[in-house]
Amino acid sequence: MGHIRLGTIPTTRKWQAVAQIVAGTGESGTGSQDLLTADIDSIAAETLNAARTGLSKAIDDIGLQYTFYLLTQVVLSTRTENWVEQLAPFGIQLPGDAGLIDLTAEVQASIDDFVTARGRPTDVSEMAQEAAGEAIAALIGPKANTLFGSGREELKLAVHDFSTKTGFARLSQEFFGRFMTRFLNFYLSRVTAAQTGQQRLPQIGDATTFNDALLRHCQQSALILHDYSGEWYSKTEFQHGINLENTSGFVAVAIKKLQAELSRQGTTT
Fold it and tell me: In terms of C-beta density within 10 A (0-12 exposed, 13-18 middle, 19 or more buried), how is residue 152 classed?
């Protein structure tokens, strides 16, 4: 599996304290978790600064680009009479009794097949894949569960809500917020391990309190992409049609916007 190169490791006293807590070599207990969660914005910004090189490479990851492109095609397919036919070219097969789990599994399989055909999964492509699954579950799941009956057509109705300009803006914000959470989480663990000399370091995500705070922070920061995503989706589909090429350009801009927002918030604390 591919790896993200470590950038310049921060040397500030605050970062040293965070590294020790994450590695389990510093304070422990509720107080240490409070320290992490209370300063989440500056920690996220400092991690991003250290991960600048890795994030630049992530923008060009074909797995990330395809994952977001596939999300556009899944929601757009529900605008047609037979959405199953629209999904077939992506290898997505939905039986008559398909539910949310089936859709999620098929989306994951489509990403796997695409990435494998072009080499092998990278850390970034797997983060994007997981973020897509989480976004589908978080937004489409509640709608699918409230519909009477169950099956492919009811699932289509739930997904269709995110084929509008406003609906897709929500889906995009959810996806990028979750992707950035995973990116920072992954990077923070690895850069901390490198700094402390630990051979094996638990994912920072194992610290539930911190992880929840990081997710909220990234999702709130991704609000900057809400209107931008909706405008891009609506305009591009109307004028040209959404394809992998123009999606890749959008993803690059979106990541840079989110990076700038997270960095800005870190300087205002």
Answer: middle
| End-to-end C-alpha distance for the chain, whole angstroms | 37
Domain layout of the chain by residue ranges:
1-269
DSSP structure class, residue 80: S
Higher local confidence (pLDDT), 138 or 14: 138
Predicted confidence band of residue 9 (pLDDT cuts 50, 70, 90): low
Burial class (CB in 10 A: 0-12, 13-18, 19+), 12: exposed
Do the Cβ atoms of 225 and 254 come closer than 8 Å?
yes
CA 70 to chain centre: 13
Q: Measure Cα distances from 139 to 159, 170, 172 in Å.
A: 9, 8, 11
Give the total residue count for the chain: 269
pLDDT at 3 over 60: no
Question: Which residues have a Cβ under 8 Å from the Cβ of 21 and sit 6 or more positions away?
Answer: 27, 28, 32, 35, 36
Residue 65 DSSP one-character state:
H
Note the pLDDT tens digit of each residue in 164-193: 999 999 999 999 999 999 988 887 777 666
Q: Quickly count: other Cβ atoms within 10 Å of residue 33's Cβ.
A: 17
What CA–CA distance (Å, rounded) separates 41 from 22?
16
pLDDT tens column, 14-41: 556 556 655 555 554 444 555 555 577 7
